[in-house]
Amino acid sequence: MEVIYDQAEGKVDIPHRHDYYTVLIVEEADGKHVIDYKSYDFSPFQVHFVSPGQVHQVVTLSRPKGSVFTFSQDFLVENNIPERFITNINLFRQFGETPPLAIDETTFGRLSRILGEMEECLPLDLHYRNRALGALLQLFLIYCNNSRLLDTTQLDEEHSGVCMLRDFKDLVNQNYNKWHKVAEYAPTLHITPKHLSHTVKSLTGKTAKELIQDRLTLEAKRLLFHTDLTIKEIAYRLGYEEPLHFSSFFKKQAGESPSQYRQGRQ
Predict the structure, then answer these.
(1) Alpha helix segments (H runs only) across 121-266
(2) Are the beta carbons of 105 and 69 closer than 8 angstroms?
(3) Separation CA 72–CA 232 (nearest Å)
């Protein structure tokens, strides 16, 4: 983080997105991390997780102390790391709240040692370099997951509820601009809407409907912020036949109308 700050000469970066996973390990920093337009203040001993496609911005008011590493979906494939592992540890959120993980000093020291081992594996002439990095990545994420004190079912890749949640999130990402109701997703998963909502609620704390709404709201904010599409065009792109219905939905979710949201961020 210090190197990035120095290279930017302390200037704040603009909101941007990557097509890879990003992890920030904060030892100390003064500022905030904005992920998908939600702001999280920096504090000592935090880990921040950013998924591919998420819009984020790091705002540091002074020289921070910490580390950053990234990895791609191709890296997971090449090292035989199932993407369901990333889903099941529940650290990377594709949409909705993405708060940082607060860790204790002991865990921070453990993670720092893993980062040091990652650096030692970086020389290109190291045999089985990527396999070593893949193993260290999994160990890093497992320690992070364990520090969350999650229900152990979150780590069980064969747990039916976890599999269902993963499949549901995939479906939402593929169909949020066409399907707005839980009843439209449930048949594809071969379950009832009630069962789907109960399972999603038990694993995430949010209902299936809320996750669908989170994804719609997120995409609406991205389009309002990063494109010149009219509000009517955005409404149609998100599957609303009536732009007025979209505006009403967005105001209920974001607390302001689409036009107010766009004007407030220009």
Answers:
(1) 129-147, 160-175, 182-189, 193-204, 208-226, 231-237, 243-254, 258-264
(2) no
(3) 35
Give the pLDDT band of residue 236 (cuts 50, 70, 90): very high
Of 67-76, 155-164, 185-194, 235-244, the least confident? 155-164
Q: Is 195 helix (H, G, I), strand (E, B) or coil?
A: helix
CATH 1.10.10.60 maps onto the chain at: 160-264
Amino acid at 140: F
Domain spanning 160-264: CATH superfamily: Homeodomain-like (1.10.10.60)
How far apart are the two ends of the chain, measured CA to CA in Å?
28
Each residue's pLDDT tens digit, 32-68? 999 988 899 999 999 999 988 788 999 999 999 999 9
Alpha carbons 124 and 62: distance in angstroms, whole number: 34
Would you state the structure tokens that stand for residue 240, as one six-digit string? 């609303």
- 65-71, strands of its sheet edge to edge: 65-71, 21-28, 46-50, 101-102
- pTM tops 0.70, yes or no: no
CA distance 220 to 37: 11
